TrEMBL record:
ATP binds at residues 45-52. Residues 404-490 are annotated as: Disordered. GO terms for biological process: DNA replication. Heteromultimer composed of small subunits (RfcS) and large subunits (RfcL). Residues 37-159 form the AAA+ ATPase domain. Residues 422-439, 465-483 have a biased composition (Basic and acidic residues). Part of the RFC clamp loader complex which loads the PCNA sliding clamp onto DNA. Keywords: ATP-binding, DNA replication, Nucleotide-binding. InterPro entries: AAA+_ATPase (IPR003593), ATPase_AAA_core (IPR003959), P-loop_NTPase (IPR027417), Rep_factor-C_lsu (IPR023935), RFC_lid (IPR047854). It comes from Methanobacterium bryantii. This is Replication factor C large subunit. Belongs to the activator 1 small subunits family. RfcL subfamily. Residues 404-415, 455-464 have a biased composition (Basic residues).
């Protein structure tokens, strides 16, 4: 068994740090157990701070639990299938409470999780069972719609001293000797992530009686290495070149990304105009050297670029600011990734349309302008959405508005065609036709009588005959028409 599992807290007292959060969680659990339903408990915090641990301990307080993890498929149907029913119904026997656990809800994405957010929102609305959700990123757009339906608990990184004391306890239990400063270095490097601290300790202690500072090389410096934000923060917060160079050694990001991120965040940290100006001067110099490195492949230029974008920018400020500044990702990279997700969406829609219309994706995409026009009409849009099996967000390819579900037509008396109504209608039609026939007969008679006075009786007879023939035809034609109209009406 991994040490992280072996030393996972077995009760609430064992959980380190986050004292206020622990108290709120205990109160929430007690309320449910006393028969007072509560909003969903939403635990948000960085990895390894105890979200899963808390969820497990809460589950122990209820008679049953259902869990859905990031590794499970979390489409609308999958979520509704696994937790939809469980969350909105009571057990037949004794109304026992069943805890629903939804992990990493900020990680819902892609085809496999299509409709996942919609399902969670529905569950949060209808649930009568306790729910605990977890997420790492408090700023994720994916969790925005959940937050106001939940009791949000922010878990903070665990303090270095608490981590050191836990690592000591583990060493004692595992019979491993240690030097305190080594454990402290491990704890600091973990940056509040207890899982990574315990994992590192396990790697270092494998087959050893004692862990020393030499063993520290066995474990790579933690996330600081890949976390560009940490490097950017050090550059903008510090004025000590040694610290900044240390942070730069740990970061493994592409220099262009680092340059973009420093550029983006300078005005979020620096307050004076002239220091912002100096910092951007350094950035433009760094950019020139970076460009040269790429174009000439003389990568020694990178060194200059790195120095300018880190120490150069750091020393541009007059003083260090003690404030909380929310740093942002590079907008250029964000736009690029947004475009990529837009393209992915278009391809998905084209695939669905192509499948139904038996065309390639390319042909389907070429038809998009026509679809855009057709999708302007609510009813057509709804029908097409159903026919092609498009999700709400996929419709955005053709229109920005949501497609309204058409209202059912008001239940008028069904226009069933009874034999009574048909005969009534037919009668009125017949009388109309009869009147018209009479009129034409009268006209014909008039015409024939006038012609009789002018022509001879023989010729008048002939003419009468020839006049009467079309009249008969007219009559037949009229009744035929009547039959057709009746038939089509039926
Ligand atoms: N507050 C804590 N007190 C004691 N041990 C902890 C605490 N937080 C984490 N741990 C240790 O770290 C391990 C991982 O913690 P846990 O799975 O709860 O983290 P998490 O916040 O859910 O992380 P992730 O978001 O990556 O799933 C646990 O098995 C436990 O050993």
């Amino acid at each position: 068994m991994l040490w992280t599992e072996k030393y996972r807290p077995k009760n609430f007292d064992d959980v380190l740090g986050n004292i206020k959060a622990k108290k709120e969680i205990l109160e929430w659990t007690a309320e449910w157990k006393n028969g007072n339903p509560q909003k969903c408990l939403f635990l948000i915090g960085p990895p390894g701070t105890g979200k899963t641990t808390f969820a497990g301990l809460i589950a122990g307080e209820f008679s049953d639990s259902v869990e859905l993890n990031a590794s499970d498929k979390r489409s609308y149907d999958a979520i509704m299938g696994v937790v939809g029913e469980a969350s909105s119904s009571m057990t037949l026997f004794g109304n026992r409470l069943k805890l629903i656990i939804l992990d990493e809800v900020d990680g819902l994405h892609g085809n496999d999780d299509r409709g996942g957010s919609r399902a969670i929102n529905k569950i949060l609305k209808d649930a009568i069972q306790p729910i605990v959700m977890m997420a790492n990123d408090p700023y994720s757009n994916r969790i925005k719609s959940f937050k106001n339906k939940c009791q949000v608990i922010n878990l903070r990184k665990v303090h270095t001293n608490s981590i050191v004391s836990l690592l000591k306890k583990v060493c004692v239990k595992e019979g491993v000797k240690f030097e305190e400063h080594v454990l402290r270095t491990l704890a600091k490097r973990s940056n509040g992530d207890l899982r990574s601290a315990i994992n590192d300790l396990e790697i270092m202690a494998k087959g050893e009686e004692k862990i020393t500072s030499e063993d520290l090389d066995l474990v790579a410096p933690k996330d600081g290495r890949s976390n560009v934000f940490d490097a950017v923060r050090t550059i903008l917060k510090s004025k000590t070149p040694a610290n900044i160079k240390g942070a730069m050694r740990q970061v493994e990001a592409d220099p262009s990304l680092l340059l973009e991120m420093v550029t983006e965040n300078i005005p979020r940290e620096y307050e004076k105009k002239d220091e912002i100006e100096k910092a951007y001067e350094m950035i433009s110099q760094a950019d020139i050297y970076l460009g040269r490195a790429f174009s000439t492949r003389a990568y020694t230029y990178w060194k200059y670029a790195y120095e300018l974008m880190s120490v150069g920018v750091a020393l541009s400020k007059d003083e260090t600011y003690k404030k909380f500044a929310r740093y942002t990702n590079s907008s250029v990279y964000t736009i690029l990734s947004k475009n990529r997700s837009k393209r992915d969406l278009q391809n998905r829609v084209a695939e669905k349309i192509g499948e139904k219309l038996h065309t390639s994706k390319k042909v389907a995409i070429s038809q998009f302008p026509y679809f855009e026009i057709m999708f302007q009409d609510d009813d057509i849009a709804y029908n097409m959405m159903t026919y092609f099996g498009l999700e709400d967000d996929e419709v955005k390819v053709f229109r920005s508005r949501k497609v309204k579900v058409p209202k059912k037509p008001k239940t008028k008396k069904k226009s069933t065609i009874t034999s009574k109504s048909v005969s009534k209608e037919a009668k009125s039609e017949e009388t109309k036709m009869d009147k018209e026939t009479l009129k034409t007969q009268k006209k014909v008679k008039k015409a024939s009588s006038s012609s009789a006075s002018k022509k001879s009786t023989k010729s008048s007879k002939r003419s009468k005959k020839s006049d009467e023939e079309p009249k008969k035809e007219e009559n037949n034609g009229g009744s035929k028409e009547k039959q057709v109209s009746l038939f089509s009406f039926k």
